[in-house]
Amino acid sequence: MTARPASGKARGVWLEDLTWPEAEERFRAGAVVVIPIGARSKEHGHHLPDHGVSRIAIINTGVSTEPPLRIVQRDILAERKVRVACADIRGLGRAAAGLMRQKLGGHGDEHETSMVLAIEPGAVKMALAKPDYGNMLKAPETVFVQPSTFEGNPASGIDYSLTGVRGDPSLATMAKGRKILAAMADDLVRGIRALFPEAFHSAPKSASGAAPRRRRRPQR
């Protein structure tokens, strides 16, 4: 995403690195958002990487993405006869749940902030982290689930959030994040091994006979 800041010099940034107020400022300034869409999942002859997998495991790191992913799983099964597995972040790392001290959580909270502190601490502005439970602490306890959004109006009921957070990110620490991530990784490894035990009998090799290289995240 590019925009011309107050300095007058255009500079590109990754949208994922911006807080929503920072992103809003750039959008208002007329930022251009570049969305790269590639063709890495299609065949490209015998000389370029090709994909045609039937063992698929999705790691869903969102909450609002759970319902659409269930639809996608069903559609793929019906149309392609491929049973796609999906692990949702809300069900991962339960072994570290006792580390949380917030009254409730759900978005940008102690749990999520701790993970980002462990992954990329420089991206977290802890001086701006503060508790924001909105009106959720007043919500009735019930077995029923209701949809909710984020609204800046205190009169909007359970949708109210001043900062776009539900929980207390000020309680987050890097140490907690590392333990959460370790517990999540354990859950994922055990889950994949249970679903696809035959895939672990031998390490796959490329056409040249060498073990596949681990891909590195691009430098920013």
Structure description:
The protein has 220 residues and is mainly alpha-helical. The protein has 3 domains: 35 residues, no CATH class; 40 residues, no CATH class; 84 residues, no CATH class. Helix content is 25%, strand content 5%. It contains 4 helices and 4 strands; from the N terminus they run E-E-H-E-H-E-H-H. It has a two-stranded antiparallel sheet. A two-stranded parallel ribbon has the order 3-4. Strand 1 and strand 2 form a beta hairpin. Helix 3 packs across helix 4.
How is the secondary structure organized here?
Elements: E1 2-3, E2 11-12, H1 20-28, E3 57-60, H2 66-80, E4 85-88, H3 110-119, H4 174-195
Parallel strand pairs: 3-4
Antiparallel strand pairs: 1-2
Helix pairs in contact: 3-4
